[in-house]
Specification:
The complex is a heterodimer.
Chain A (H helix, E strand, L loop, with lengths): L3 H22 L9 E7 L2 H17 L2 E7 L1 H13 L7 E5 L3 H6 L7 H6 L8 H8 L11 E13 H4 L2 H11 L9 H10 L8 E4 L8 H12 L18 H14 L11 H9 L3 E7 L18 E5 L10 E10 L5 H14 L2 H10 L6 H5 L1 H4 L5 H7 L3 E2 L7 H16 L6 H18 L6
Parallel strand pairs in A: 1-2, 1-3, 5-6, 8-9
Antiparallel strand pairs in A: 3-8, 4-6, 4-7, 4-8
Chain B lengths: L2 H7 L1 H6 L10 H30 L2 E2 L9 E2 L3 H8 L5 H31 L5 H13 L2 H12 L6 H5 L13 H29 L3 H9 L4 H29 L3 H6 L11 H9 L6 H31 L1
Antiparallel strand pairs in B: 1-2
Helix pairs in contact in B: 4-14, 5-9, 5-11, 6-9, 9-11, 11-14, 13-14
The chains are: A alpha/beta, B mainly alpha.
Amino acid sequence: MLKKSGSVFILVAMILTLAIGAGGATAAPKAQVTELTIFWAQWPPADYLQEIGNRYEAETGIKVNVVQEPWGSFYDVMAAEWAAKGDAYDMVVGDSQWLGQGAEQGHYLELTDFMVENGIHETVTPATLQFYGEFPAGSGRYWAYPTEGDAVGWAYRKDRLEDPEEMAAFEAEYGYPLAVPETWDQLRDIAEFFYRPDENVYGVGVYTQKDYDGMIMGYENVMFSWGVDWWGEGNQVIGVVNSEEAVEALEFYKELYGFAPPGTNNAFYTEMNSVFVNGQATMIMNYFAFLPDLLNPEVNPYADVTGYFAGPAGPYGDRYTALGGQGMSVLNYISDERKQASLDFIKWFASDEVQQQWADVGGYTCNIAVLESEEFLTNTPYNAAFADSMTFVKDFWNIPAYGELLEPAQRYINGYVVGNVGTAKEALDNMAIEQHEILVEAGVLEE
Amino acid sequence: MSQANAQALSPQSAAAAPPRQRRQTSDRAIAWLFITPTIVLLVVMNIFPLFYSLYLSFNDYSVIGSEPPKWVALDNYEKILTSERQRYWHNFTVTGRYALLSVGLQLIIGFGLAMLLREKFRGSGLITTLILIPMMLSPVVVGLFWKLIFDPSKGFFNYLIYTNPRGGAEWLSDPTLGLWSIVIVDVWMWSPFVMLLCLSGLSAIPDYLYEAAAIDRASAWFQFRRITLPQVMPLLLIAVLFRTIEAFKAFDVVMGLTGGGPGDTTETVAVRLYSEAFLGKFRTGESSALAYIVLIIIIAISNLYIRALNRAREG
């Protein structure tokens, strides 16, 4: 049987352990910041940022840690951190849709004065500043520095599109030469021409993923290029997202899906690259951030015959592509010293010189000077298309209710495109009604 | 050195000095000492979240919002149970159909397999082990590799059932076949579990019952109906209970295969719960209410099964 002395010893040991643990956890932050932690999704650009961070450490002695979280749980972890008002991270390279939440709910530090005083807002393309950094739209208030520019671009098989026999056959059938498509109609014709299930060759791979936002990130490219937006005057959605042009655009997207390789019914960036490297797809849409994989002959056996182009124009003269990418924000729950150290890092990172380095290591810069440089444009086969795309990007809602607005859009559009549920008009009408109710509930729109 | 030994070595000194009052730790205290950490863990990790989520289900609250919970009484429950736009009934219908098909088929196949493997033969142990493998796999992994199996161009499922596989069905993108594909995977994965329970039931039936029936010239069907089935029934009901509860929680396989699509045709309650609670929405209050409704349904169904189980045991 235990003696009391034994129990007391255990108790004292437990108390000591707890005290030491608690003491460690609540140690006061040092005034001198020696380390900065940046939170980002787990993907190659985060590795590139770590490389840039190592250079910052070499210059300043301040260590930079880029903490990576898989895409699937990236938002959840950040949201949990916001809810706890935690200070585990100094900065986050967050999605463009998070801006409203970060700004309105006080998670992000406002960067307007910092960016204007340092002229940083003039170093990046207007579209990227608007979609990665500004909230509310058009307000001139900035919450993030456009860090990883991204947009939906296209990869295609040059050996198919430049094959003389194919070119002759295409011209005979469609009455114009086979070339990289400049309009969506041309893209559709090429997709149809190369749709040959018996040869296991298919025309085009398009996003259809239902789980989160894949379907919308695909459909948006067509929708925007048909002149349709997610909101109209006074944030109205009814009559905007379900306009005649929107119905046409959705029907067109479904038609494109008809030329896609089978099994791409729940497809996003991984599946797009997959159907391209296995030789099925002649063209695929994909974020530029995922195109570097196609340069590698070990991954893509058609690497030397793979070409790239920016999103084509719509039938009414509009040309837009869906925005990807993220901006770097400073979290509001860290100490003033850490906030200042974070701003110092962003100022250093935003300089033309470091942005050039960022582009050199593989990051997609939004810096105008770098984007326009000959060195950048010729650095990879897709950089020219990327720089082009960065001038005509558009995005989904970025207000706090964006997740709620996204859900009916994903559901109805995926249901129509993939599952043949109802008509395009029914899908868009239903989506418009639900989004209207969500906006009214969120106080963004009056009844 | 123990206290007893020390006293034995120096009896005089013990007798000379008045014995020190050394209080012993009672058995009860020791019991508490060991139980307390577990109780603390249970309270922190289970009981508190349970009651806190119950409280949140009566509130308008988002875990990532800056607003504190706002009391709305039964509004969340009312919205879930009555609002047409919320589509919750659709999710319950999908889950109900899935549970019915899945559990029903598992029962038939699992019981059938158990009957086949009841008699020992050369290699029966190995076959039983192989059959049990699917239920040992992670559901997420199962979902992902079945996604490849169902793939119309690369997967072999269509090769098995169509003469022209390229002209075969797109299992995961067809609104009707989508649910069936999830059922097929669930049946493949969990029929062995039913089989295992049935096997243990079958092996417990005394041989003399069959011998007596054989003497009375009872037919095989009669023996099955009057001996085998009643004897195995309690275990069958336990299998049905477990599998029904699991079917109501179907999430990982659904997410791995269809993500609830196309549209919302395969969106089960658990998938819906996830999308309401996370995925950019973070409707914590409403999703807590939905979780409690699911819990109540599961408790109600379990009660029905347990009553049936008791009747089967008594009968």
